[in-house]
């Protein structure tokens, strides 16, 4: 079947508008065609094998969410345009919320000779993933073993890993199981016990988010706070060339910020002048390695929540980078002060040398620059992203989710990402929250029965009892409680009659 | 390249001077609730460059009043709240007419020291500092100066009722708000244009 007729029958790329930015991607392309463009979606890349790369999108999720908002199109369509511009349609890329799932899905699509961009968040692609054959499941294990060996991971023994794989293969043959999902009911602990810890780990990666109830599907891994814990997945950063770096040998030992600040401005300027990188690149991480007077080396990381242009920051005297450096400097001074309280030293130990190195950078080629809008979409989200890089705490943003269960009726999301994910009005869910407080306890606090106090019934909420295993949570009766001090408190009584404080009318 | 003369000609101030509009006023946009009983005593107070101090003890449902000012076409707003064990329950904010695309939150106990760049920047036009655990007089002075420079409105919320005996020279309006057990909302001005007490029922502003 040729490509066109296949597309007419079934389009695996059907993306829905409620797609949120995934955490990881896998990318397959001939190595000769891969240059700096491999960093066009994220600065965090790993080379899995000769022609396969993994993307960790976490440093750029906000950035892409905003670009999607500005372009008013689906995120994967935007990714497709960017990758098309960089690799001339001769590639295959898949996105999911775990790198291992990306690799498995990539394997199955490579067999179908697919090209382009695919997301594991669509129902159709999830079904394809669930029909994964054992061949596809076992194939990446060989490379995994090489990476674990390279990293000299503690407790990993290659021979044991291979023998346990052989044991699992014999078991599969005996049981006549076609694909990995035929055995999906086997829990991780059993697999670990029977086929070694590492196969258990892989097992967990394979089914992560696929077997729980609908509330915990990979689609739910979308909040700004959600950081995927890679656990033991062997991530080896891919570097194309030597990173731009500046080394400063101080003429005299120094530890005063006022002096350090002016020297840092000079060093950032020197960094920008290095020709191996350009203003098209956006920085997400800078390493600042400080050598103390006693020649001890300390490594500090200047992390930017959103990739930003150091070259452009030069116009502001590198304010953003300096804020990050200042927070790190303050942290270091506190640490040194605490460490040296027992020593009879007149002041904190000074610095004699440092090295500043661009650790992670996103490459935006001129073709990609054309695809990325620079116009503000009414609201100054760029300003907020810039601010996020300057302050040490995350800025929270929320959207409403169509669910009547109070805890599930909203979620945090990336600043500036599209809020109109639902093509219907959310008014009824918003109205349902009118009697609820502005502040709540994420984990309700158990309280004594308040029946002797003034209570006003507000609402009864019902859980999705057909997916819930805990029948205590099936219904909750919410009340407005006025306590003895005259404070208004949001409380509920669960099915078992236990009372909880869930919020305060502040 | 423009000459200095051309640059001057194009300069906004020069244009205004040439047009005879010598009195250059800042772009004032007063924020109102749309409730006449409240807008009258708050008039000329909730505008860029001003600091309003609120006495809103927890559990008294007083935060509805600063929120009333954020219901209509607000600019980008940030609500900095202290870690008191509570988190933002966003649907309740939306149900009171807050546009969640325009309001952002940060959990921080020591806002001025930890979030100085936020006050130096003019991205957020309304900044609410809710129950800070650390906020010195020097910090309030810094915030009010930055508010004037950046033309920002600052709401400083205290987790206790304000006393008229202890003043705040940086605040244009100081007001205590709460709800009593009969459902009546009380707004008690202790500094501002008119020092009076306004009593409202919930239906008065929930139906607006």
Describe the structure.
The complex is a heterodimer of chains A (506) and B (208). Chain A has 3 domains: 3-220, no CATH class; 245-390, 2-Layer Sandwich (Dna Ligase, domain 1), CATH 3.30.1490; 435-504, no CATH class. The longest helix of chain A is centred in the middle third of the chain and has 21 residues, at 319-339. The model of chain A is unreliable at 1-9 and 213-226 (pLDDT under 50). Chain A has a 5-stranded mixed β-sheet with strand order 2-3-1-4-5, sandwiched between helices. In chain A, strands 12-16-15-14-13 form a 5-stranded antiparallel β-sheet, with no helix packed on it. A 4-stranded antiparallel β-sheet of chain A has the order 6-9-7-8. Chain A has 506 residues and is an alpha+beta fold. Chain A is built from 15 helices and 16 strands. Helices cover 33% and strands 23% of the residues of chain A. Chain B is of the alpha/beta class and 208 residues long. Chain B has a single domain (31-206), classed as Rossmann fold (3-Layer(aba) Sandwich). Chain B has helices at residues 4-10, 12-18, 36-42, 64-68, 90-95, 111-114, 116-120, 137-150, 202-206, and strands at 51-55, 77-81, 87-88, 103-107, 126-130, 153-158, 173-179, 184-191, 197-201. Chain B has an 8-stranded mixed β-sheet with strand order 4-2-5-6-1-7-8-9, with helices on both faces. In chain B, β7 and β8 form a beta hairpin. The longest helix of chain B is centred in the last third of the chain and has 14 residues, at 137-150. The radius of gyration of chain B is 19 Å and the shape is globular.
């Amino acid at each position: 079947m040729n490509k066109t007729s296949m597309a007419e029958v079934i389009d695996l790329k059907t993306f829905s508008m409620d797609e949120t930015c995934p955490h990881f991607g896998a990318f397959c392309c001939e190595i000769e065609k891969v240059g700096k463009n491999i960093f066009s979606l994220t600065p965090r890349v790993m080379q899995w094998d000769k022609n396969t790369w993994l993307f960790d999108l976490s440093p750029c999720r906000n950035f892409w969410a905003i670009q999607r908002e500005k372009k008013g199109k689906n995120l994967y369509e935007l990714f497709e345009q960017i990758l098309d511009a960089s690799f001339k349609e001769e590639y295959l890329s898949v996105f999911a919320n775990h790198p291992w799932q990306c690799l498995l899905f990539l394997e199955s699509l490579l067999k179908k000779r697919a090209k382009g961009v695919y997301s594991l968040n669509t129902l159709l692609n999830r079904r394809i993933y669930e029909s994964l054959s054992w061949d596809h499941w076992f194939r990446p294990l060989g490379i995994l073993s090489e990476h674990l060996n390279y990293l000299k991971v503690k407790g990993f023994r290659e021979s044991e890993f291979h023998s346990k794989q052989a044991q699992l293969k014999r078991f599969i043959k005996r049981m006549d199981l076609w694909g990995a999902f035929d055995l999906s009911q086997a829990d991780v602990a059993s697999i670990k016990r029977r086929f070694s810890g590492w196969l258990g780990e892989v097992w967990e990666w394979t089914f992560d988010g696929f077997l729980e109830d609908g509330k915990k599907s990979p689609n739910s891994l979308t909040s700004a706070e959600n950081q995927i814990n890679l656990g033991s997945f062997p991530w080896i950063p891919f570097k194309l060339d030597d990173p731009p770096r500046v080394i400063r040998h101080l003429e005299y030992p120094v530890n005063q910020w006022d002096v350090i600040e002016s020297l840092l401005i000079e060093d950032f300027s020197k960094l920008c002048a290095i020709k191996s990188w350009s203003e098209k690149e956006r920085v997400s991480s800078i390493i600042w390695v400080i050598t103390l007077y006693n020649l001890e080396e300390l490594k500090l990381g200047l992390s930017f929540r959103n990739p930003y242009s150091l070259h452009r920051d030069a116009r502001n005297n590198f304010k953003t980078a300096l804020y990050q450096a200042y927070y790190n400097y303050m942290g270091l001074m506190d640490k040194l002060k605490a460490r040296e309280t027992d020593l009879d030293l007149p002041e904190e130990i000074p610095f004699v040398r440092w090295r500043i190195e661009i650790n992670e950078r996103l490459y935006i080629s001129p073709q990609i620059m054309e695809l990325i809008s620079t116009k503000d979409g009414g609201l100054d989200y760029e300003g907020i992203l810039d601010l996020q890089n300057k302050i040490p705490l995350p800025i929270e943003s929320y959207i409403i989710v169509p669910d009547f269960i109070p805890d599930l009726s909203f979620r945090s999301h990336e600043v500036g990402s599209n809020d109109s994910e639902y093509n219907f009005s959310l008014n009824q869910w918003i109205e349902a929250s009118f009697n609820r407080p502005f502040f709540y306890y994420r984990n309700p606090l158990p309280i004594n029965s308040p029946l002797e106090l003034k209570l006003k019934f507000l609402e009864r909420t019902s859980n999705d009892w057909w997916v819930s295993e805990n029948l205590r949570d099936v219904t909750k009766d919410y009340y407005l409680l006025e306590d003895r001090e005259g404070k208004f408190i949001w409380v509920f009584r669960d099915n078992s009659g236990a009372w909880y404080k869930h919020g305060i009318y502040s | 390249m423009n000459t200095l003369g051309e640059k001057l000609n194009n300069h906004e101030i020069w244009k205004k001077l040439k047009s005879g509009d010598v009195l250059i006023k800042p772009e004032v946009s007063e924020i109102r609730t749309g409730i006449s009983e409240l807008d009258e005593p708050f008039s000329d107070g909730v505008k860029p460059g001003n600091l309003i101090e609120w006495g809103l003890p927890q559990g008294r449902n007083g935060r509805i009043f600063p929120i009333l000012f954020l219901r209509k076409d607000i600019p980008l707003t940030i609500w900095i709240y202290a870690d008191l064990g509570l988190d933002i329950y966003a649907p309740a904010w939306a149900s009171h007419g807050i546009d969640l695309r325009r309001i952002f939150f940060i959990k921080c106990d020591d806002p001025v020291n930890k979030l100085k760049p936020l006050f130096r920047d003019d991205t957020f036009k309304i900044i609410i500092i809710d129950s800070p655990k650390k906020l010195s007089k020097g910090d309030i002075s810094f915030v009010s100066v930055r508010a004037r420079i950046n033309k920002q409105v600052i709401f400083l919320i205290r987790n206790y009722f304000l006393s008229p005996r202890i003043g705040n020279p940086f605040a244009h309006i100081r007001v205590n708000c709460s709800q009593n057990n009969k459902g009546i909302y009380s707004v008690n001005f202790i500094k501002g244009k008119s020092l009076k007490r306004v009593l409202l029922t919930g239906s008065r502003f929930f139906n607006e």
